[in-house]
Amino acid sequence: GEVQYIVRPVIPSGCESKAEFCSAVGTGNILNLGGYGVELALKNMEYKAIDDSEVKKGVILEDPKTEELSQEVRGFIFSKLLERKPELAIDVMAFRDYLLSSTVSDTLDVWELKDLGHQTAQRIVQASDPLHTMQEINQNFPNVVSSLSRTE
């Protein structure tokens, strides 16, 4: 199959009065399109040799080590959860660890990114509504990239 990608910029109001300006929309300046960019970042994947299970039992919010708890993990801010329910600290931290470990497993290896462009185009071409599928992929790329990489 063949894929055609066409960009149709939104014409500013009042453009009809300036004929030469209307025909040159998007040619003079950089035209920014919505969507996501992709970055390949190589990270250091060292294993910890410390048992930190005892440290988690005594979580204190004023501890400088808990700064990372204020960061969002899949929509949850764990410092707020621990403030509201300190009696569930062990369970909350176990849930946080589970979310972090599942996030790591969703990361892609370099060789899985090799054919990502072709896999994306294939998913769009095979869809019953290609335009809607392309819009969903563009707007939700980080969420769908792992399923795209598994496309045969």
Automatic annotation (TrEMBL):
<dbReference type="GO" id="GO:0036503">
    <property type="term" value="P:ERAD pathway"/>
</dbReference>
<dbReference type="GO" id="GO:0003980">
    <property type="term" value="F:UDP-glucose:glycoprotein glucosyltransferase activity"/>
</dbReference>
<dbReference type="Pfam" id="PF18401">
    <property type="entry name" value="Thioredoxin_13"/>
</dbReference>
<dbReference type="GO" id="GO:0005783">
    <property type="term" value="C:endoplasmic reticulum"/>
</dbReference>
<dbReference type="GO" id="GO:0051082">
    <property type="term" value="F:unfolded protein binding"/>
</dbReference>
<feature type="domain" description="UGGT thioredoxin-like">
    <location>
        <begin position="105"/>
        <end position="151"/>
    </location>
</feature>
<protein>
    <recommendedName>
        <fullName>UGGT thioredoxin-like domain-containing protein</fullName>
    </recommendedName>
</protein>
<dbReference type="InterPro" id="IPR040694">
    <property type="entry name" value="UGGT_TRXL_2"/>
</dbReference>
<dbReference type="GO" id="GO:0018279">
    <property type="term" value="P:protein N-linked glycosylation via asparagine"/>
</dbReference>
<dbReference type="InterPro" id="IPR009448">
    <property type="entry name" value="UDP-g_GGtrans"/>
</dbReference>
